[in-house]
């Protein structure tokens, strides 16, 4: 997401964290409804697909930090996050392919 031109000075880190928690809660509620209606095998694949999206979100945010951030430690953690989530995402994608999702 391109943040150029956005005045982020008025949005606190707490505000960003709360927005993230609110979005996560909404995702969890949608996922819960779909998962409750799913059979066990479908539940597994649905879970994996939701986790793929979760890991992709972490990758996207970390890539944005690498592009726009300035702190060396934050960039190191962002790269570590990209590496770990890329691996986890690939494992989940293989699981989905194997289980016909």
TrEMBL record:
Species of origin: Caulobacter vibrioides
Pfam family, one: DUF305
InterPro entries to which the protein is assigned, alphabetical: DUF305_CopM-like, Ferritin-like
Gene3D superfamilies per UniProt: 1.20.1260.10
Domain DUF305: 10-93
The protein's name in its UniProt record: DUF305 domain-containing protein
Superkingdom, natural source: Bacteria
């Amino acid at each position: 997401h391109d943040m150029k031109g956005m005045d982020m000075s008025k949005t606190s880190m707490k505000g960003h964290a709360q927005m993230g928690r609110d979005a996560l809660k909404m995702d969890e509620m949608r996922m819960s409804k779909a998962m409750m209606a799913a059979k066990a095998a479908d539940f597994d694949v649905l879970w994996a697909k939701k986790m793929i999206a979760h890991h992709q979100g972490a990758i996207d945010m970390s890539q944005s930090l690498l592009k726009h951030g300035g702190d060396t430690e934050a960039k190191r953690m962002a790269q570590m996050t990209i590496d770990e989530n890329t691996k986890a995402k690939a494992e989940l994608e293989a699981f989905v392919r194997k289980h016909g999702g």
